[in-house]
Amino acid sequence: MSSFSSSLSCPTYRSRTWSSPFLSNHYHSSLINVVDPRRSLSFHYASPQGLNLDELCVRSQRKSVQSSVVAQDGSAVTKVVAESDGGEHQSTVSITVVGASGDLAKKKIFPALFALYYEGCLPEHFTIFGYARSKMTDAELRDMVSKTLTCRIDKRANCGEKMEEFLKRCFYHSGQYDSQEHFVALDEKLKEHEGERLSNRLFYLSIPPNIFVDAVKCASSSASSVNGWTRVIVEKPFGRDAKTSAALTKSLKQYLEEDQIFRIDHYLGKELVENLSVLRFSNLIFEPLWSRQYIRNVQFIFSEDFGTEGRGGYFDNYGIIRDIMQNHLLQILALFAMETPVSLDAEDIRNEKVKVLRSMRPIQLEDVVIGQYKSHSIGGVTYPGYTDDKTVPKGSLTPTFAAAALFIDNARWDGVPFLMKAGKALNTRSAEIRVQFRHVPGNLYNRNSGTDLDQTTNELVIRVQPDEAIYLKINNKVPGLGMRLDRSNLNLLYSARYSKEIPDAYERLLLDAIEGERRLFIRSDELDAAWALFTPLLKEIEEKKTIPEFYPYGSRGPVGAHYLAAKHKVQWGDLSLDQ
Ligand SMILES: NC(=O)C1=CN([C@@H]2O[C@H](COP(=O)(O)OP(=O)(O)OC[C@H]3O[C@@H](n4cnc5c(N)ncnc54)[C@H](OP(=O)(O)O)[C@@H]3O)[C@@H](O)[C@H]2O)C=CC1
Ligand SMILES: O=C1O[C@H](COP(=O)(O)O)[C@@H](O)[C@H](O)[C@H]1O
User: Which residues form the catalytic set?
Assistant: First the structure.
């Protein structure tokens, strides 16, 4: 019988004695399942003695953590309980929202922090600070924040009270983004709240990118934690091309280590994007089909039914390829196409994603269609064209729509078109992944299925939003005495299957950053690879002053997208009659 006691150095938690009759040396590896209210984390350890309880409790800053240790053959189970010591040595997390007066902070960050608080996911002791140049008192910040908080989870459970409690923990400090002095003053205020506790600090840069580096410089030199961790969430855009992105990374790394930088891509925090790996790697029926052998093409489709009104100043400098494709859609593509990672550890996953990105064929201009929306009247209402926005220069050629065919030149995906389509001011708002499978060879039922064989192949649809769903189109016999086939859906509609509301992407990502979980954040080499793929294309479009194809506001986008798909023997799944 082996026995193991751990006295945790992590001040938040004290472990009980961990003794196990099972963990003798002949178990070379153990699977540790951390049962926490939000998710089950799994770690592989080389030996039972390698179990790192410090890491375990730091990852999960909760009052208590229960763990089961299961030896590889499944025979051995023991319990580990790490508990908050509840005393003065507790740790605390201070979250500073830099740019607190802005749109993203109001719309997403404060509501996400409240939702985490409401769900009991924030550590016992935490403080939230808003930082911006605007003059505001704590009360004014609270008033501003309160307007966007919603009790979306369970209206009965004292939501009003929870809001009050949450708002009492929000404070404001006004300062310039490039002033060491103002960040020193912030540091003093943070210290007042942190007291003697071990202080961990998270800065969320919700500011325009041209001031990222100033803010990071000041935050890291004047307001870093002295005894805990300091992390910085950086919002996109991470540069405009390979060169500016590399320069930004270099500047950030003057003040921060890579593991302190959390580059956020909020699409990675969406429920169905996170589920992609679960779907693929935990269901026997999918992984064997996940290759050129069975998959004909894959489509990543993003559409919005509103234009860039109000954001034209930002958008015109970036365009839809940088705004959606180079980040959100490419990240999903990498997750979709990667090889099985060694583990669920962040570095293992990100290593595989980088390999996919680096295996991608340079994108040819002939494989890209760009568009821009123009004014259109529908039902007596006139919707403005992109260049009607006062913040957009007249005659701007910035694309608000793009479709592209991409290829991954590796053994798994050789020759399979990965089509992307992203557009603003289209007829619908949605984001989805469509996987179109090959034809059934020698199909006995071809005669019974109509003439368009492409319409009879299986299609797996992962609808990221709205109405999250996963459905598989299959051929099915229409009930009756005859033999007629139709395409029907095996349908997993989330709202019908799960009663729990789906958390906003920002909730998941903020919690991950607090817990030090990097899996859903972009590593610098991933970013470099993403820009290496798109920069030559963007340069060519801009140098050649390629004229976008104009499409009416509220339409399905440029017809060029159909020709592009047809060139690669593909039909867009979102445009078929039985979507
Ligand atoms: N809004 C959104 O939906 C999304 C935003 N993002 C990214 O998040 C970040 C924040 O976005 P958003 O909140 O919309 O940005 P805002 O334009 O609202 O700016 C945020 C705050 O930064 C300060 N600020 C604005 N312009 C300047 C300037 N030129 N110089 C110094 N300070 C300035 C202002 O605060 P004050 O004047 O009080 O200092 C402002 O309230 C950006 O990087 C954006 O690209 C990413 C995805 C979506
Ligand atoms: O990053 C961005 O995303 C939004 C779309 O996000 P969603 O979660 O509402 O789908 C997009 O409108 C914006 O242009 C872009 O910068």
Answer: 328
CA 391 to each of CA 308, 360, 376, 384, 538: distance values in angstroms, whole numbers, following the listed order = 10, 36, 19, 13, 22
Cβ–ligand 1 contact at 133 (below 6 Å): yes
Query: What amino acid occupies position 533?
Result: L
Among 441, 445, 419, 414, which residue's Cα sits nearest to residue 432? Answer: 419
Q: Is the CB of 104 under 6 A from ligand 1?
A: yes
Backbone dihedral region for residue 127 (phi beyond 0: left; psi -120 to 50: alpha; all else: beta): beta
Shortest-distance Cα residue to atom 7 of ligand 2: 267
Question: Which tokens go with 362?
Answer: 């340079």
* Tokens at 493, concatenated: 């509609």
* Structure token digits, residue 75: 């025979």
**Does the interface ipTM go beyond 0.95?**
yes
Orientation angle between helical segments 524-543 and 242-255, nearest 10 degrees? 150
Residue whose CA is at the smallest distance from ligand 2 atom 9 = 304
Confidence class for position 39, pLDDT limits 50, 70, 90? very low
Helices (H) and strands (E) in the chain, counts: 17, 25
Residues flanking ligand 2, CB < 6 Å:
266, 304, 323, 431
DSSP label of 559: T
Q: Using CA atoms, how far apart are residues 528 and 246, in angstroms rounded to an integer? A: 7
| DSSP code at position 339 | P
Q: How far, in Å, is the centroid of ligand 2 from the Cα of 464?
A: 13
Exposure pattern of 419-450 as b/e (b: 16+ CB <10 Å)?
bbbbbbbbeeebbbbbbbbeeeeeeeeeebbe
Are 167 and 146 contacting, i.e. CB atoms less than 8 angstroms apart?
Answer: yes
pTM over 0.90: no
pLDDT reported for residue 42: 39
Residues 332, 131: Cα–Cα separation, whole Å: 32
Distance 92 CA to ligand 1 centre (A): 27
Cα dihedral 301/304/307/308 (nearest 10): -70
Angle between helices 110-118 and 505-515 (to 10 degrees): 70
Q: How do residues 518-527 score in pLDDT, each as one tens digit? A: 999 999 999 9
Which residues does 351 contact at the CB level (< 8 Å), separation at least 6?
A: 341, 342
Residue 270 alpha carbon, nearest atom of ligand 2? 8
Query: From CA 553, how far away is CA 547, in angstroms rounded?
Result: 17
**Ligand 1 neighbourhood includes 313 CB (under 6 angstroms):** no
**How far apart (Å, rounded) are the C-alpha atoms in residues 524 and 239?**
12
Q: Are 458 and 296 in contact (CB under 8 A)?
A: no
What is the 3 state secondary structure string of 178-219? CCHHHHHHHHHHHHHHHCCCEEEEEEEECCCHHHHHHHHHHH
Token digits of residue 529: 């690879």
Of residues 46 and 543, the one with the higher pLDDT is: 543
Helix ranges (DSSP H) in 256-317? 271-281, 312-316
- Site to substitute for ligand 1 among 206, 233, 304, most atoms within 8 A of C-beta: 206
CA distance 567 to 575: 16
**Cα–ligand 2 centroid distance for 302 (angstroms):** 10
Indicate if the alpha-carbon torsion angle 205, 209, 211, 216 is positive or negative: positive
